[in-house]
Amino acid sequence: MKIQIRKFYYGDIPEENAGGNELKTASSIPPLEAGEASWPLWEIFIRSKQGLDHKHVGSLHAADAAMAIENARDVYTRRQEGVSIWVVESKYITASNPEEACELYEPAADKIYRHPTFYSLPDAVNHM
Amino acid sequence: MNNFFTDYILHLADTTLILAQRNTEWCGHGPVLEQDIAITNISLDLIGQSRNFYQYAALLINQSTNQPINRLTDEDQLAYLRKEREFKNLLLVEQPNGDWGQTILRQYLFSQYQYLLFEQLQNSKDDQLAAITAKALKEIKYHLRWSSEWVIRLGDGTAESHNRMMNAIDELWRYTGEMFVPATYETQSAADQTGFDCALLKDSWLQKVKTVFTTATLPWPEKVFMQTGGKEGIHTEHLGFILAELQYVQRAYPNSTW
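ok -> structure tokens follow
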């Protein structure tokens, strides 16, 4: 039995250009128009302080990873927003399909017992 | 403080201001949004450096005994009310932007020079100059990294980008010699160890540029006649137009504030 898996991609990556797509062939990629921006899209994650997590801040175009870091530095850390930058090419991010939101997320809605709100805390426990 | 040292500070101020002004012409016109922001960020860095130098020059001028108390100068007057022949910037930085290749080559050739020079000036006997250049050095390190990567990217890119870099070299190389020919105020400042003899930077500059050009597969430029004069106020025809735009508001509406 052949199982078809359809991937959904984040951002403005056309499906035939996205990573991990087995169906990609050279002929399926349309040639770029003259003057069309051909740089891939990158997702940018910035850590604002030591000890905090990297947070997604946005995306930008760059020719390679080094340029993506520099562009991110210029675009997203001009006002001292960060101490560390991660970049990842957008095509490597697989996103969940918004149309499947009901089966993916709604079943959790009526299972409030999964929140740890039914325990009574001992008085000795602070900072919860 | 001596006049020659004030001239030296003004030379540093004018050079960074004029290059900043040139780079800002890209604002809103960069090849892609990200690089538009990058080049204007560099402009802002350079304007910041020039402000530090102008403020310091104004202080030196006001402290000198010749300056009447009712005619104190400030950074704005030095930037907006001096004439073309009073500007001491390098000829290289007043050259037109041309295409993106020419702009990034101009930035690279200058940043490489500025990096080597400021590396020395951070040890200046003059504390204020040492502090300004040490602070600027961190910015310049990034300008150098950004612009040298672009020279390599375009030089070693397509036939089109390679040709454009060759044209840019043709256009700009003749203005690089001036950087290493000291003006009188540079020699005097170097002698009392507040400045640095720029002629001593030439070999290491050539070596660094050669490495980048080789990586960029760009042939080493042939020996050409080197233009000089900018440091002494003798400029190419371009500076007048830059100043006309830069100084217009202050001259049309003197002392206006907003």
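Chain A is about 15% helix and 20% strand.
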